[in-house]
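Example record

The entry below shows one chain as it appears in the dataset: sequence first, then structure tokens.
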Amino acid sequence: MELLRANLSKVRIPEPTNRIYKQECCISFDTPKSEGGLFVDMNTFLAFGKDYVGWNFEKTGNPVYLHIKQTKKLISEDRPLKKPTLLAIGVDGGFDNQEPEYDETYSIVMLPDYTTFPFPSVALPEKVRLAVDAILIAEGAERKEQIASWTADKKQISEHALTLKQIDNGVIIPPSGWKCSKCDKTENLWLNLTDGMILCGRKLWDGSGGNNHAIEHYNETHYPLAVKLGTITSDLEGADVFSYPEDESVTDPHLAEHLAFFGIDFSSLQKTEMTTAEKELDQNTNFDWNRIQESGQEVEPLFGPGYTGLTNLGNSCYLAATMQVIFSTHSFCSRYYKNQSLKMAFDIAPADPTVDLNMQLTKLAYGLLSGKYSVPAVQNDDVANAMDLSPSAKQKGIRPRMFKAVIAASHPEFSTMRQQDALEFFLHFIDQVERINAGYPEADPARSFKFGIEERLQCPSGKVAYNKRNDYILSLNIPLEKATNKKELEDFQKLKAQKEAEGQEISSNEIVRPRVPLSACLDSFSHPEEVQGFYSTALKARTTAIKTTGMTTFPDYLVLHMRKFVMEAGWVPKKLDVYIDADDIIDISLMRSKGLQPGEELLPEDAPGSEEESTKVLPNEDIVSQLASMGFNHLHCEKAAIITSNAGVEEAMNWLLSHMDDPDIDAPINKEAKNNDVDPSKVATLVSFGFEEEIARKALKASGGDIEKATDWIFNPSAAASGPSDMDATSSSGPTVDATLPDGDGKYRLIGLVSHMGTSTQCGHYVAHVYKEGRWAIFNDDKVGVSKDPPKDMAYLYFYERIQS
């Protein structure tokens, strides 16, 4: 005890603002349930597993730790299961996560000799007792970051419900036998609370649902509220009320009065329909997406190194699917697993390793690749189950909470618990990895995805200009006109028209979808296209140029993004219901750009003082105005139109969605013409960092005025100059290949798929399939198994690895 008293200066009583970690090790995925429990540093409040607490003592000299150990309780096997009615976990009405209960014990441990003192004990110094009590009472930092993920957004009271005026037209609604007033639909019916009209709901992207009569009625009348028939019971809180002006489910505090107006006695009604939230929930609990998730098949579970599942943190499947494929690549496996130990990452990490991306990437790599956490889950303390490899065996997986918190810290959307686009996450992740490796480009694993793109522009004069940029993905249009099953599609359309005329619905096994070869999508990328409004310095006028696109380098890993989401009339996003026939081996050698060719003449440089640049494309005002009307920033819209050469609204929108987080997205378009107008306050900021004024000005000019990018430029001007969003117009015959980028032959092998289920990238579910050790494996959150039928024709992102000659 005297030893403990001698080290009281190393013990802190936590303040309410302190982040306290007590649920997971900051270096590994050990928890209080792990064999050695968890050790909480009573000075920094960071937690460490038994194999890592010694490292913290060596680094900080902090000797006093609160040891937390959880041991499973023996509980009854016959706990009844309830169907969830709320998008929540561990709350009344939500998912019963069936987690076993644990006994929790505490002790004070002093390093380096692991001297142990029991807790609670009156013999302990008061400061230690107060510190432990505060740690145990406090909400853990991990828990604070999770709370929002478990409960769905609470429905708001509609302003229209408070002022709703109902029309007394004599309508009385019967308790059953409802039918749409404009068609024969008897399900998915909505009662308009203003005039009592019963109408069917929206038609879904796959043709199911209603016939849009309820929304069409609102567009005609602007009567704001409707309630879904079949969801009204004596518990009015469960009724599904929808506000068309607010475009979301809402709460109507006067629903009882509004229903009574049409003679509805809600106390006698029985629930017959699912609410909108329950339908979403039902999709997630029933796993109806058979092809992608390989439902209905007995999947052989996989365990061991490289087969660790990632537990869903609440709409985090986009992250899980993407990271499983990324950590199957040699570049990321080498950088964060083979060539960097956990101790090495911890030793170079800042005082708080939970906020260090390098540390958390290494932690994630060891969690996924070491095999330590990829073992069958032991249930009810039955050790024999630990060797259970039957199809019913499962693993608990690991929770990437700290990694998600770090990678999302600089992104307002990924820090929420909403579903996200896997493509956007991939690009954001690669950008962050490139930033932390900016000083060591040779060690940057993100480079393995990076490649150069060159655009050749030819005006009617016959003269040419070249634009260069770098990217990480090839975003491909899907040319439906190249479908290989046109005859079957024509027959299906005739059958569909016939059945609709007879009032029948098409069954799912009768649906025929277009099949488009991946090769046709790749061809469309390089296909010549017209660029309107191109200023030719040879003709001294605006004209139409022909643009062809090629690749200056072939990356180690080629990511293909299929543009399955297109805009229909009225700017309604639609998902293309299409199959892509993707080959296991592809050859893109013909997509290599050749640069300036013998006999080609470059467009002349602008004359001094000229207002036009030889390769400058002015933004198409129609494209800009249409994008701006959808809520995008006007400057961003102009950039999107220019960079996509005014190809169209869809192309500009795809670029916008992929580059929203570019550090120079807000930089002026014509920043070269304003390169002398550097913001003095930003110069002063960089000078205050210790940089010389001349260097600060140069860095700000090169980075479009972005301080963070300017700092990167100062430390690594060559890397900053070749950022992913750079576009350089050239009228010289210099080399077309960037020597800093990986390059090789154009033959690739398919190694990974990220597939999406749902009508939008912001909803639904993501699953990964990875080819490793001579077989395909499915990674569906924490479920990992042998894939018998990988959905190669349904992926959203395809990952190809270059075949080394």
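Notes for this example: The two ends are 67 Å apart (CA to CA). The chain has a mean pLDDT of 81.
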